[in-house]
Amino acid sequence: MNKILRFLYSFxxxxxxxxxxxxxxxxxxxxxYASLELPLFTPPNAVFPVVWSALYALMIVxxxxxxxxxxxxxxxxxxxxxxxxxxxxxxxxxxFFYAGYFLFGLIVIVLLLWTVWMMIQCFKSxxxxxxxxxxxxxxxxxxxxxxxxxxxxxxxxxxxL
Length: 161
What we know:
Radius of gyration: 16 Å
Oligomer: single chain
Number of strands: 0
CATH architecture: Up-down Bundle
Helix content: over 70%
Strand content: under 5%
Largest sheet: none
Order of helices and strands: HHHHHH
Distance between the termini: 46 Å
CATH superfamily: TspO/MBR protein
Number of helices: 6
């Protein structure tokens, strides 16, 4: 795959996910999120788009690097994990922010953490830099899992039924 196609594939996969997640998140932020009791260490709302923009940029670069690998088997496995975690990210945003199903969101974010961990290991086996570029995302997801668990604890398993 040539460099332009690799970049477009990386960029489009991440950008589409970002747009879907942003829609789900904005729906929750403008409706019920302000009424939730939030756990300690919840960052201000203004922090989230800045951090996500940086994380999405790292994802694009990392996946672009991986797509340049010559081993088709490894690229397919890495692509499956990468696209799988993007899908899980969108599902989590839907469950947590759009539907208000916090417990289901917590279950999905745990699966997302595992998938990202597996993706990092796969990426590192192909290109160490590509794998290391995903660690900030993993750390941010750990914070998100903590916040999700805190919302479940403080507000119940589901806010909107």
